[in-house]
C-alpha cells in the first residue's frame, strides 16, 4: 500500500513543543490539558498575523525539539519494510531542512516527503491508499472522496466520525488498522468476478 503519514501530532508530539515556545512568547503557562483546538495559537488569543510573528521566531526550535510519540519510530520502520511511505505535512517549505534533519536524527525512514497544505490533492495525484493524520478537516475532506484516514486521537478531533475514519489512540492501533486495510485490499483482489465467467 501507499501510506501517507502526517508529522505534527501524528508521528511527534507537536502540542508540547508549541506550548513550550508559545508560553515563552506570551508569558502564559498553558498545558496540554488546555488544548482543545487544532490551531493551538488561538488558545493564546492570537490572530494569524500574530501567530506568524511567533512562528517565524520559534518555528525552527519548535520543530527541532519535538519528541516522537510512543512506538511511532518502531511501527513506522515496520511499515517502511512492507509499504510505500510518504511523509505529508502542512509545514511551510521554509522548514523542509529542519524537518528532514529531525527525521534523520530519529532514524525514521520514508520514501518520499511533501510539505503541502492541500493533502487531498497530493494524495490523489500520488495514489495514496490511506492517510494517517490528526487533522479533523482532513478526515472530513477525505471521506467525501471515499478515501480512508487513520485519525490519530487528539482532543480536538474526537467528534469526527464517518465510515472512512479509523481511530487510533496509539501507534499499535495504527498498525492494526493498516493490517486490516491491507487484508481488505487483498480480499477485494480475490473476489473481483472474472469477466469470462
Ligand atoms: Mg498534524
Q: End-to-end span in angstroms?
A: 29 Å
Helix content range of the residues, please? Answer: 40-55%
Roughly how many Å is the radius of gyration?
A: 18 Å
- Proper CATH architecture of the largest domain: 3-Layer(aba) Sandwich
Average residue pLDDT? 95
SSE-based structural type: alpha/beta
Number of domains: 2
What is the strand tally?
A: 8
Bound molecules: magnesium ion
CATH hierarchy, class of the largest domain: Alpha Beta
Task: Estimate what percentage of residues fall within beta strands.
Answer: 15-25%
- H/E element string? EEHHEHEHEHEHEEH
Q: Which sheet architecture does the biggest sheet show?
A: 6 strands, parallel
Low-confidence stretches: none
Give the name of the CATH superfamily of the largest domain. HAD superfamily/HAD-like
Fold-level CATH name of the largest domain? Rossmann fold
Strand order of the largest sheet: 5-4-1-6-7-8
The number of helical segments is 7
- Taken from the alpha-carbon principal axes, the silhouette is globular
What's the assembly state of these chains?
single chain
Description:
The protein is an alpha/beta fold. It folds into 2 domains: 2-12 and 68-191, HAD superfamily/HAD-like (Rossmann fold); 14-67. The protein has 7 helices and 8 strands; from the N terminus they run E-E-H-H-E-H-E-H-E-H-E-H-E-E-H. The protein has helices spanning 14-26, 48-64, 72-82, 96-105, 119-125, 136-144, 171-191; strands at residues 2-5, 12-13, 67-68, 84-89, 112-115, 130-133, 149-152, 165-168. It has a 6-stranded parallel sheet, sandwiched between helices. Strand 6, helix 6 and strand 7 (149-152) form a beta-alpha-beta unit. Helix 1 (14-26) packs across helix 2. The chain is globular, with a radius of gyration of 18 Å. The model has no long low-confidence stretch (mean pLDDT 95).
Amino acid at each position: 500500500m501507499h501510506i501517507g503519514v502526517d508529522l505534527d501530532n501524528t508521528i511527534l508530539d507537536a502540542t508540547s513543543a508549541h506550548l513550550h515556545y508559545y508560553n515563552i512568547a506570551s508569558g502564559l503557562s498553558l498545558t496540554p490539558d488546555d488544548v482543545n483546538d487544532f490551531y493551538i495559537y488561538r488558545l493564546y488569543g492570537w490572530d494569524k498575523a500574530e501567530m506568524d510573528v511567533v512562528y517565524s521566531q520559534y518555528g525552527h526550535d519548535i520543530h527541532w525539539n519535538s519528541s516522537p510519540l510512543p512506538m511511532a519510530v518502531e511501527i513506522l520502520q515496520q511499515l517502511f519494510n512492507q509499504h510505500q511511505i510518504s511523509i505529508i505535512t502542512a509545514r511551510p517549505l521554509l522548514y523542509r531542512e529542519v524537518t528532514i534533519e529531525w527525521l534523520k536524527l530519529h532514524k525514521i525512514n520514508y520514501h518520499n516527503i511533501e510539505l503541502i497544505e492541500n493533502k487531498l490533492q497530493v494524495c490523489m495525484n500520488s495514489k495514496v491508499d490511506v492517510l494517517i493524520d490528526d487533522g479533523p478537516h482532513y478526515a472530513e475532506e477525505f471521506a467525501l472522496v471515499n478515501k480512508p484516514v487513520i485519525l490519530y486521537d487528539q482532543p480536538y478531533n474526537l467528534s469526527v466520525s464517518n465510515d472512512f475514519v479509523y481511530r487510533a489512540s496509539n501507534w499499535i492501533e495504527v498498525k492494526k488498522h493498516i493490517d486490516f486495510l491491507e487484508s481488505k485490499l487483498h480480499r477485494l483482489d480475490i473476489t473481483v468476478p472474472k469477466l469470462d465467467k
